[in-house]
Specification:
alpha+beta, three-stranded antiparallel sheet, two-stranded parallel ribbon, 7 helices, about 15% strand
Length: about 200
Amino acid sequence: MTTAPAPELLLDHRGSLRPTREVPFDYEQARLGSAFHEAGHAVVAMAYGSHVVSSEVIAWFPEPDRYTVTGYTAYELRCGAPWQFAAQCAAGEIANVQYLMTYGLWTPERAATCAANHDREQAIDVLADLGHRLGRDHVPAGGKSWGMVRGMARRRVGLLWREIRTVAQAMNEHTKLTGEQIAAMTGLTNAPLPGGAA
């Protein structure tokens, strides 16, 4: 794409534009990293029993020598297990870092570019609405820290790495996958939407 996608695809859960930053990758590396990020969200969400609508890489060239890459995963928000929801939010960042390690691209500076503060803030806000406390850099009374949630996500990403890799490679090739396509290629079950709608 040469033009930016629909504006709503670039907004966080609060309606603010997600921040962008320069990354030390070529276009193909950045695109595949974004695919791993979104595959991490989608596969972990599906494994936890959420209905995944779609997951996609969004890339465009605003100028001939400059690219922008992001992604978007749409799923039905199920919060019967709020800490699992928080872990699926963290799974994108964790899968992106694991991609760097697996593909021989990891450096501390590159790993730092995988941070997804918008995912952390969504987890904090959703859990707060449900009466749970998630701390950015500390363990609040009766709650968990983002570091603890990232640990949960790291274990889940490790267990589901084959599925995440399969989805990321397919997403990189096809740009967008439906939840049903993800379920078919991973063997996971894409939970039906409440009321039987798919």
